[in-house]
């Protein structure tokens, strides 16, 4: 005889993509599911007991949220709001949400069930997918160009050496040396454009080990002039990754941050350069069309002048640079390595706070090993 599988409903709610919030008759939050924790970026522990009005009611909102919540609570009148701005942790989030009464079976203890659908996340997903697709196309283009540049270089170098030997005249050696030096510079550039030829070699690692290595490198290179704060979640699981390639990604990002903080003296006049290295679990991230329930997020945050808006859009494209002698390859290479790990880098920047976030999925991570 068919037996229905028994389901732990708490588990079910925690696996849903819809963010759910439960509120008691005093309008205090007493439960949020995993999707809601991810949306608000706070844990149940921190949210528990907070007034839901602080979250749902924006200061300039003409809608009387308090009255609407009371109506639902006591009269069972459900309501939905579209494109509402709610505020969590000083951050505005745009959502559609609906509020309904939840029957508990006890007449004097009605609860409120609030279901939220973020609008930003959908917009962000589309934007990120576009970035990744365009990035792949540009990357191929760049590799093609790099190959074409590289091919004749060996010939030019060889011919110049021959010419120098034939001329055998110190007066002309200066010129042939210039040609050889410039050819060598181009070859290094083309190699960087081509990226690593080594396929990644995946090993089970604790992500904090390469992060600590990067921290040590940055500390010694900057001669302790930059204040580095570590904010690690030490309970993060181990994952399969190429340690050396991840070090390259983090170094590329850290070097940019250090350059931004040290090369802009006027902006940094009033502040000490500070770097924060943060690790977290980040739930529900869509990368290249795939929804990942759980990822490891590494934030590299600096307090430099930030990235100009017109540069920000194309920051991960090769050859996009804001520095006079930059090649604009650092972030493109970093993004490429992250994609090979099924992850990605995203960036948010305002003057005084630039955060590069590296996302590495880990729940399906073993399959890539
Ligand atoms: N933390 C940051 N703060 C301010 N601007 C940044 C930051 N990170 C990157 N940028 C900007 O993004 C640009 C692109 O960075 P990217 O690392 O790809 O190239 P690059 O640093 O110019 O050259 P290189 O190939 O030597 O790394 C930089 O030139 C800089 O203008
Ligand atoms: Mg760089």
TrEMBL record:
Domain spans labelled Histidine kinase: 144-364
Documented EC number(s): 2.7.13.3
Catalytic activity reported: ATP + protein L-histidine = ADP + protein N-phospho-L-histidine
Keywords recorded for this protein, A-Z: ATP-binding, Hydrolase, Kinase, Nitrogen fixation, Nucleotide-binding, Phosphoprotein, Transferase, Two-component regulatory system
Domain PAS residues, every copy: 9-76
Keyword Glycoprotein: no
Gene Ontology BP annotations: regulation of DNA-templated transcription
Annotated Pfam families: HATPase_c (PF02518), HisKA (PF00512), PAS (PF00989)
Top enzyme category: transferase
Database matches in InterPro entries: HATPase_C_sf (IPR036890), HATPase_dom (IPR003594), His_kinase_dom (IPR005467), HisK_dim/P_dom (IPR003661), HisK_dim/P_sf (IPR036097), PAS (IPR000014), PAS-like_dom_sf (IPR035965), PAS_fold (IPR013767)
Primary role: Member of the two-component regulatory system NtrB/NtrC, which controls expression of the nitrogen-regulated (ntr) genes in response to nitrogen limitation. Under conditions of nitrogen limitation, NtrB autophosphorylates and transfers the phosphoryl group to NtrC. In the presence of nitrogen, acts as a phosphatase that dephosphorylates and inactivates NtrC.
This protein's name: Sensory histidine kinase/phosphatase NtrB
């Amino acid at each position: 005889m068919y037996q229905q599988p028994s389901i732990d409903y708490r588990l079910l709610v925690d696996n849903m993509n819809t963010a759910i919030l439960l509120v008691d008759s005093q309008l205090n939050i007493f439960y949020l599911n995993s999707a809601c924790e991810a949306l608000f970026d706070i844990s149940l522990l921190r949210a528990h007991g907070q007034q839901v009005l602080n979250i749902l009611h924006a200061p300039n909102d003409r809608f009387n949220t308090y009255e609407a919540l009371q109506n639902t609570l006591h009269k069972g009148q459900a309501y939905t709001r579209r494109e509402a701005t709610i505020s969590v942790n000083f951050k505005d989030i745009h959502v559609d949400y609906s509020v309904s009464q939840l029957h508990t079976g006890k007449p004097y203890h009605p609860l409120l069930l609030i279901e939220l659908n973020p609008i930003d996340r959908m917009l962000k997903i589309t934007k990120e997918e576009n970035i990744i697709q365009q990035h792949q196309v540009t990357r191929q283009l760049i590799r093609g160009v790099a190959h074409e540049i590289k091919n004749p270089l060996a010939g030019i170098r060889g011919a110049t050496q021959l010419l120098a030997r034939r001329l055998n005249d110190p007066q002309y050696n200066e010129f042939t040396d210039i040609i050889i030096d410039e050819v060598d510079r181009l070859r290094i550039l083309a190699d960087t454009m081509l990226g690593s030829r080594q396929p990644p070699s995946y090993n089970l690692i604790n992500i904090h080990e390469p992060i600590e290595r990067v921290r040590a490198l940055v500390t010694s290179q900057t001669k302790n002039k930059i204040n580095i704060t570590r904010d690690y979640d030490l309970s993060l699981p181990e994952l399969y990754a190429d340690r050396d390639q991840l070090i390259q990604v983090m170094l590329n990002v850290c070097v940019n941050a250090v350059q931004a903080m040290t090369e802009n003296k006027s902006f940094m006049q009033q502040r000490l350069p500070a770097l924060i290295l943060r690790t977290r679990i980040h739930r529900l991230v869509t990368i290249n069309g795939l929804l990942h329930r759980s990822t490891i997020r590494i934030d590299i945050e600096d307090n430099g002048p930030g990235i100009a808006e017109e540069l920000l859009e194309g920051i991960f494209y090769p050859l996009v640079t804001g520095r006079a002698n930059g090649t604009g390859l650092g972030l493109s290479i970093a993004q490429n390595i992250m994609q090979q790990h099924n992850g990605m880098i995203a960036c948010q920047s305002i003057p005084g706070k630039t955060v590069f976030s590296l996302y590495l999925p880990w729940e399906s991570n073993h399959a890539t090993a």
